[in-house]
Amino acid sequence: MQYTTLGKTGLVVSRLAFGAMTFGTGQLVPGVTNSIDQTLADQMVGRVLDAGINLFDTADAYTNGESEIMLGKALGDRRDQVVIATKVGFRLGDAITDTGLSYRHIIRSTEGSLKRLNTDYIDLYQIHIPDPLTPLEETLQALDNLVRRGLVRYVGFSNFPAWKAARMVGIQERYGYARFIAAQMYYSLAGRDLEHEFVPFAEDAGMGILVWSPLAGGFLSGKYTRDNPAPEDARRTKFQLPPVDVESGYEVVDRLKQIAQNHSASPAQVAIAWILTKPFISSVIIGANKLSQLEDNLASVDLQLSPEEIAQLDTLTAPPSLYPGWMQPLGWDAKVKAALGIT
After folding, report:
1. How many domains are contained in the chain?
2. Where is the NADP-dependent oxidoreductase domain (predicted)?
C-alpha cells in the first residue's frame, strides 16, 4: 500500500480508501438496493485492512444509517487503528428538519453517527452537499463546535464548487474556526471537470482531495459497451450518476482495455492507477458489491503505468479549456519570459 499525508496535516492515510456506501440491505437511492449483510461487510473490511488500507468512508444517509452501523461493527476493536470519515447533509429521517447543514441538524447528526459507528470520535467529518438555505457561517460554526468538543478531529466537505469552498475557507480564517483539510470530489477519466477551477484552489488552500466514483459509477470497468450499453443488474442502468458522455466514454474504455492487456490487468485497475499518478490526489475511494470486485480494485495500487500510457489517457480525456481559463496563458509576456529563461 502507498501512503500520504492528508492536506497540510500530519494525518497519514492510505492512497486507496474503502467506501462503505454499499453496506446494508435496503434502498440506497430510488431504484438502487444494497444487499451486503454484516458477514460480507466483515470479510471486506478484514481484507482491506490486510491490504494496508487505513481510511474508511461512509455517510449517515447511506442505506438509512446501516452503512455506519455495519462499518462500526466490522472494525470492532481495530477502530483506533484507522481513520473514519463520514458525512452529513442528505436527508436522514422523516421530519422536515432531518436534512441540510443547519447547526441543529449537524450537531444532532454527529451524535447519531457516533452511536451508529460505536465510537467516541470521528476522524474526518464532511459536509456532504451544499445546503441552499443555511448560511455558511452557521454551518462552519457547528463544525468548529464539534472539533472544540473533541467529537470530531478534522473537517472537510464534498461536492462544493470552488468559489463557495473559497468563501468557506475565508470565513474559517476570519473567525478562527477549524480549517478544512480535505475535499471529497468526483474525478475520473470520464469526468475531469475538477481540473478547471477546483484543483488549483485545493492546492492553494492546502487541502487533500479524496476521489469518489473513480470508475464513473462502474462505466470504466469495461462492462458497458456499444454492444451492451445496459448490462443486466448493472447499477448505472437504474442510477446514472455521475453523468457520462457515453460516446466518448466508449473510446476511453477501448483504450483502457488495450492498456490493461499490456499489464495483464483489468480496465478498472488501469482507470484507478491513472488517478493515482496525479499529485493533487490524496486518496481514491474504492467500493464493491462482492469480494471479487474488491480484489480487482485493490490490485490497482500496484499497477505501474508507463509515461506513454499515462500521456495517452491524458490526451484522450483532456477536458476542453473553459473561459476564462483559455485566456490565462496570455498573461505571460513573451519578452519577459525570455528574459527570465522561462519556457
Report:
1. 1
2. 15-316
CATH at residue 50: 3.20.20.100
Structural domain harbouring 265: 3-340
Phi, psi for residue 106 in degrees, rounded to 5 = -65, -45
What are the helix (H) ranges across the chain?
38-50, 66-75, 103-117, 136-148, 162-175, 198-205, 246-263, 267-276, 291-298, 307-317, 334-340
Q: How far apart are CA 324 and CA 77, in angstroms?
A: 51
Q: Give the whole-angstrom CA distance, residue 206 versus residue 6.
A: 9
Q: What is the pTM of this model?
A: 0.93
Bridge partners for 180 per DSSP: 155
- State the catalytic residues: 62
Neighbour-count burial for 311-322, b at 16+ CB within 10 Å, e otherwise: ebbeeebeeeee
Q: Write the CA distances from 172 to 8, 13, 143, 175, 308, integer angstroms.
A: 16, 24, 10, 6, 42
Grid cell 444509517 — which residue?
Answer: 65
CA distance 115 to 248: 45
User: pLDDT digits over 27-72, tens only?
Assistant: 887 778 888 999 999 999 999 999 999 999 999 999 999 999 999 9
Residue 118 to residue 78: CA distance in whole angstroms: 12
Cα(172)–Cα(139) distance, integer angstroms? 11
Which residue matches cell numbers 473513480? 214
d(CA 4, CA 79): 20
Instruction: Give which of 181, 193, 186, 129 is closest to 156, Cα–Cα.
Output: 181
Q: Tens digits of per-residue pLDDT, 147-185?
A: 999 999 999 999 999 999 999 999 999 999 999 999 999
How much is the mean pLDDT over the chain? Answer: 95
Amino acid 185: pLDDT: 98
Kind and range of the H or E run holding 87: strand 83-88
